[in-house]
Amino acid sequence: MTIDLEPNETIDKARAMRERYLARIPEDQRAAARAGWTFLLAAPPGDAAAIHRVADTVGFRYTYIKDRAEWRTPRR
Known about the structure:
Blueprint: E1 2-3, H1 11-22, H2 27-36, E2 39-40, H3 49-58, E3 63-65, E4 70-72
Parallel strand pairs: 1-2
Antiparallel strand pairs: 3-4
């Protein structure tokens, strides 16, 4: 499972990302990997509340660095 931290991510963009990663694994394993790989996206798009709840539940901390347009985890 992949949890997308970007609340405005589209299903089409997530699918394209999945396909890029699947292309890197052996062809005979792709169908099984595709069938078993799910994405959690914000619903509705733009609403980060569900993503924050899941991250909080599993203890995953992150912040958005606006001027770099990226997500970061705190350094330990």
